[in-house]
Structures
1.
Amino acid sequence: MSVWAILVAAGRGERLGLDQPKAFAKLGEDPLLAEPLRRLDASDWIDGIVLVAPPGWEEPSILLAEELACSKVHSCVPGGETRTESVRAGLAEVPAAALVVLVHDAARPLLPEEVIERVLASLSEGWDGVVPGLAVSDTLKRVGPDGAVQETVPRDSLYAVQTPQAFPSDVLRRAVADGAEATDCAALVEASGGRVKVVDGDERLLKVTTAADLAKIASWL
Ligand code: CTP
Ligand code: MG
């Protein structure tokens, strides 16, 4: 079974608010992108990597992969305006022979090997997609634009979903082909009728959105 990873790093990082894209924010000594790249490259489960870089940042991205001696990086392409467009750009570089595609957010740098193993193990049971998720622990309310609570939403069946997300490559190709948009790949597969499973996620897969997230992840390293 050949497994290819698409590492999406093309976002602007507006909520982080730096001069450079989020993928090049400093996490310790290195750009943020270094950590997930190194981990995917070192994974026993991954055969090849397509890196989706911020437009105009392809060269520093390739240089970084070379510096880290990441031997599995097959290509680096510029991303699009939205995450889905970036995934589409990455998928176009994944060879037809790849059976499984794993899509991961560079903004979740601390990728544990056991999560990769978990999503891939479940995928082999025949699902159209497998995603890591954490049960929601806060009470959830639907709130109107005026701040008024409209409803308390029962949380028992609600999960906050993370990446890496795994799909049979033909399923993901079909799901992204029709130009639909979503905040994760699983939603595209669900919309095209696919059955997606949630497995245990990991707290360490926190997504860097704000400066506080970046500081927290740096302290965990
Ligand atoms: N992403 C991407 N291409 C885009 C938008 C997002 O590749 N056009 C990637 C980001 O690089 C990130 C992941 O998708 O790894 C999750 O996106 P998010 O956390 O929203 O990152 P940004 O879009 O960069 O941040 P912001 O929304 O604050 O601008
Ligand atoms: Mg975004």
2.
Amino acid sequence: MPSQKTQVAIIGSGPSGLTLAQLLDGAGVESVVLERRSRDYVQGRVRAGVIEQGTVEILRRAGVAARLEREGLKHHGVEIAAGERRYRIDFAAQSASLTVYGQTELTKDLMEARDASGVPPIFEVDEVVLENIEGDRPRVRYLRHGEPHTLDCDFIAGCDGYHGVSRRSIPASVLTTHERVYPFGWLGVLADVPPVSPELVYASHERGFALCSMRSATRSRCYLQCDLDTDLAKWSDERFWDELASRLPAELAARVVRAPVLEKSVAPLRSFVAEPLRYGRLFLAGDAAHIVPPTGAKGLNLAVRDVDQLAAALAAHYAERRDELLDAYSAAALRRIWRAERFSAWLTSVLHCFPGRTSFDRGMQLAELDHLVSSAAARAAFVETYTGL
Ligand code: FAD
Ligand code: DHB
């Protein structure tokens, strides 16, 4: 049976696993990334697009920000619409900015950096099992093309997303989970049409939430709040664009360009936190540890911050034989995670149409948005959290 050794076994090659491998490499710590899917599948997944400045700095340190800084779109404000009303929230007063750059592009940059390091992820692994997590020498067993393999390591980083094996390897008696499932999802499309506005538009409408984002001056990424049982077959391109236009203020609706969509998918919305994030020599990071509803654009940013913290802790272990950072990882990360959970759940609750929403509930949502745009203090607090200052 083929067996391999490394210092850190990383499960999952999403943004958290790949960024962790990059950061560890920079600190002289060896790792091996194991991924269930194929490389093309991982690179093709269309997801996040909004990158905080702090995330850019971590990616720069990891040596993977050059293209992002060259091609990413720098944003200095965001628009919130409610019915026909439009408000712009400016980041400039706080010298804040965001970069719009697709997760697919970031994943490509990270994969190329792993190739250049000479240790690319091992793709298409199956039946991953984590063993001896409580001991000094954990082992990962897996199948590749039907053949059994083992990977011996000092630590395991569970970066395998919400449905991964890592979190499930922690005994139920140790793990506590906290969850809110929302009664709707997001229907997202990608299309080669210019964005309706140069900045992102978050629209709260009687018919449901809509978001107009982008990937470039000629490519849009748009989302509609949808039912959980949405059947993609019933959403022709024409229906999507009509529905999007119906949820935007007239001025913006007039700028919706209808074109064939390149990708269409539905994502359910969930808030989720697992704790602790450490069990023996297993550490959870990214979506394996927590999920935020996408409204606040926090998921990818949280994942990168988790692994930055974890990489620093592992580097201190190897370079200085100091374990305080590893011991502190779970509590420190959870504090940051809960703050992002608060913001994402709040923004979701203010912008979406919940089943059974009364006219009073709608009045509360509109008052909340009115407070946000008319109070300098509320705007400053929003910018601080939304941009991740
Ligand atoms: P993942 O990206 O889920 O990667 C986990 C990897 O582990 C996957 O490749 C998976 O195949 C692999 N894996 C799973 N199980 C196993 C196993 N047993 N063995 C080996 N490998 C395994 N975030 C933002 O910050 N900004 C946004 O604008 C934003 N928008 C979003 C829009 C949508 C529609 C969605 C769905 C998400 C959005 N997010 C956003 C969230 C963001 O995409 C995720 O938070 C991010 O992908 C998390 O990265 P991760 O590496 O932790 O997990
Ligand atoms: C995008 C996704 C989000 O969840 C969000 O809040 C903003 C933008 C995007 O895919 O561009």
